[in-house]
Amino acid sequence: MVKKKTCVFISGKGSNLKNLISRSREKNFPINISLVISNNKNAYGINYAKKFRIPYVIINTKNQNYENKVFLNLKKYKISFICLAGFMKIISSGLIKNYKRKIINIHPSLLPKFKGLNTFSRILKNKEIKAGCTVHYVNEKLDSGSTITQKSFFIEDNDNELDLKKKTQKLEYSAFPEAIIKIFRNI
Ligand code: GRF
After folding, report:
1. 43 lines ligand 1 (CB under 6 A)
2. H-helix or E-strand containing 61?
3. Which pTM was predicted?
4. By CB distance 3.0 to 4.6 Å, which of 7, 60, 70, 170 could disulfide with 35?
């Protein structure tokens, strides 16, 4: 099996990146993490790229030329698949057009509910029964592309935002790899 050369975009902690790197080392996992792009030079997740000797690139989205830098690097590393893992910027339409149905994102809510930021406080405020995560394709509209995998849990009475975050992230570590396996099983 030829593994798809994949780029993971991050902005922060990178725990999903860490998880994907470890899963991608399994013989039958369909992707290989060949590049990491961060829009934050201080993102902790860059340490995982360093540790596992994966090339990484820091971009500054305030710089007009940043999209060019992204494209050049995607080309340089022959990237055919992109995972957004905690990437806190909207992806440009140029990138979406060039990687149609080749970009996926993980979001900490049961989409289509609670698109955007601060999901956990809104989930609690709304007195939801369930929370969870969604892996979906990325299109031009924020958190709106079709769903690949969704995992949920029941919210307990005393759960606070941090509890929800922890429980959601735990599910993310199985949902993201499962979504990737599902995508490539169908191709
Ligand atoms: C995840 O909870 C994901 O749902 C959201 O951002 C968070 C990133 O966490 N999009 P990490 O950087 O992978 O630890």
Report:
1. no
2. none
3. 0.96
4. 7
Q: Which atom of ligand 1 has the smallest separation from the CA of 13?
A: 12
* Beta carbons within 8 Å of 42's beta carbon, 6+ residues apart: none
In the chain, which ranges are E strands? 4-10, 31-38, 56-58, 81-84, 103-107, 130-137, 147-154
Catalytic residue IDs: 107
**Would the CB of 159 count as within 6 Å of ligand 1?**
no
Which stretch of DSSP H or E encloses residue 87? none
Please write the tens of the pLDDT for every residue from 132-185. 999 999 999 888 999 999 999 999 999 999 999 999 999 999 999 999 999 998
Ligand 1 atom closest to the Cα of residue 87 is 10
Residue for token digits 């902690």?
Answer: 13
What is the distance in A from the centroid of ligand 1 to the CA of 6? 18
pLDDT tens column, 52-92: 999 999 999 999 889 999 999 999 999 999 999 999 988 89
- 143 CB near ligand 1 (under 6 Å): no
